[in-house]
Specification:
This protein is of the alpha+beta class and 140 residues long. It is built from two helices and eight strands, in the order ββββββββαα. The chain has one domain: Umud Fragment, subunit A (Ribbon), CATH 2.10.109. Strand 4 and strand 5 form a beta hairpin. The longest helix has 24 residues. The N and C termini lie far apart (37 Å).
Length: 140
C-alpha cells in the first residue's frame, strides 16, 4: 500500500474534517469500498473533493456511487472513473484519527445518522468547530 497526503480546504465535511486537515489517502479499489468510507474524487469542474460514500447502486453491470459532504444534505452521483482515493487517516493540529478506528467509526455513524439525536449532535459539533475555526483565524 502506498499512502499519500492531501490537505482539506473546504467546509463540506465539518465536523469530522475541517479546513487545513491533513488527509492520509491511498488509491481507491472500488471492490473494497463500503458505505461510510470517505472517498476523494474529481468533480465535473476538475477539483478534488473528499466526501462520504452514502450509497452504492448496481444497475446491470454498472455500479453507481453516491456521496455527500457531512455538512451537506444533498447527495451527488460520482462516476467510477472519477474516484481517486479513499481516506485512511485525518489529522488536524493535535487531533488525529484513523477512519477505521473507534473515532472514525463513531464519526461515520453520526454522519450517516438520520435519527433526531444523531442530527442534533452532528449539528452541535459543526457549530463548535465553526466557532473554533473562526477563533483560530482571529488569532492569526
Amino acid at each position: 500500500m502506498t499512502f499519500q497526503h492531501v490537505q482539506a480546504v473546504g467546509y463540506s465535511m465539518i465536523p469530522f474534517i475541517v479546513p487545513e486537515s491533513a488527509l492520509t489517502v491511498e488509491r481507491v479499489d472500488t471492490r473494497f469500498l463500503q458505505i461510510g468510507d470517505i472517498i476523494c474524487f474529481i468533480d465535473q469542474d476538475g477539483f478534488g473533493v473528499a466526501h462520504r460514500l452514502v450509497r452504492i447502486e448496481q444497475c446491470n453491470d454498472v455500479k453507481r456511487y453516491f456521496t455527500r459532504g457531512d455538512a451537506q444534505r444533498c447527495e451527488e452521483e460520482v462516476p467510477e472513473e472519477s474516484l481517486v482515493f479513499v481516506v485512511r487517516k485525518v489529522q488536524h493540529r493535535y487531533l488525529a484519527y484513523d477512519t477505521d478506528g473507534p473515532v472514525g467509526r463513531l464519526a461515520t455513524r453520526l454522519a450517516l445518522s438520520q435519527s433526531y439525536r444523531g442530527v442534533l449532535l452532528k449539528n452541535a459539533l459543526q457549530r463548535l468547530l465553526r466557532l473554533g475555526v473562526a477563533f483560530m483565524k482571529q488569532k492569526k
